From TrEMBL:
Localization in the cell: Cell membrane
Family statement drawn from the similarity comment of this UniProt entry: Belongs to the NrfD family.
Residue segments, region Disordered: 357-376
Major place of residence: membrane
Keywords per UniProt: Cell membrane, Membrane, Transmembrane, Transmembrane helix
Family annotation (PANTHER family): PROTEIN NRFD
Topology in the lipid bilayer: Multi-pass membrane protein
This protein's name: NrfD/PsrC family molybdoenzyme membrane anchor subunit
Residues spanning the membrane: 20-39, 51-73, 93-116, 146-168, 188-208, 220-241, 261-281, 288-310, 330-352
Highest taxon listed in the record's lineage: Bacteria
Keyword Cell membrane listed: yes
Amino acid sequence: MDNHIVEVINVTREVAWLPWAVQYFFLIGLSVGGMLLSLPGYAFARENWRALGRTALLVALTCGLAAPVALLSDLHQPGRFWHFYVVLRPTSWMWWGSIFIPLYVTGLLVYGWVCFREELQAHGRVDSRLAALYRLTSLGGGRNDALIRAAGLFALAGALLVALYTGAEVAVVKARPLWHTPFLPVQFLMTALAGGAGLVLVLNRFAAGNDRAVEVQANRLLAGFLGGVMLIGGLWLALGLFRLDATHAEALGSVAGSEAWRVTAIWAVAATALPFAIAVAKPAGTGLVTGLIALHGAWMFRWTVFIGGQTVPKTGAGFYDYALAAGPEGLLGIVGTAGLWLFLLIALTAILPSPRRPAPGPARAPQAPAGTVAAE
């Protein structure tokens, strides 16, 4: 008879990346997505994209300004941010992020100004304090497409660098197979585009005149982005199921026995397939529904990656428990970040002139040119 006692010890670890990180990756993703969607209408001067581009630029500016606040909060001691600038760490993606984020936000603000300055001037929203800046960026008066394109391309470079670093700083963690995949940065970008299109649809309904043409255009874009999300997710799943890659097989095996992860997978498929089907079948009149579901999907993907990914032990058996706290490091932080974004949206839409709503009723006949007499 064996009288030995075998004691199994497992260490439970608290999550290091809190919901603040989820909010940051969510907001910066929406900002990058909105910025990319604004380029055809502004940087490339395609008039049929201008209305959508205006709403997308609102998304980029408001989310781009709120995101760094969430990132500073996730440092636990926000004063630590200056360490990035006094200690060089060129081998760290986080260190590169401290360079790319100010570059992107600065480029985004300049791009937003040169895009909106003519609109502000036309409606008398440029006071004496901004008049000199307006004259400096006018360069001959009127809309300066070359300047807008240059500012847009600079902001695009910053956006792509941010998209690269946000995906790479997670994907390089070899100790977590769920994160260590080249598909993660691509999926971050695709879900960011889908979330950006979703927020365009929501703002189009409540803050941009409910333009039906913008709704149809954004829904079609959303369907394309969600199709890309499903394709990338399917490739990741296939590599794990058929054991074509050891890391992907290990990642899938680490959560295969969890009922919670199975429910999460079904939820993720539904949150992607449902708005895709609606946007394809009926792009007009469904923008609010598809937009909200797309935003939910983009946020839930990041929550699952960060919070869910940290509940899978690097070593040992079972899963770590996580309960969302009610204070600043949990629910209050999420609500506070959303409140900051809402404040920025209200402030920006209060400064910008309201978009023109289409006149109800039958189309009016075009007016006779000045100096002519209409026939009786």
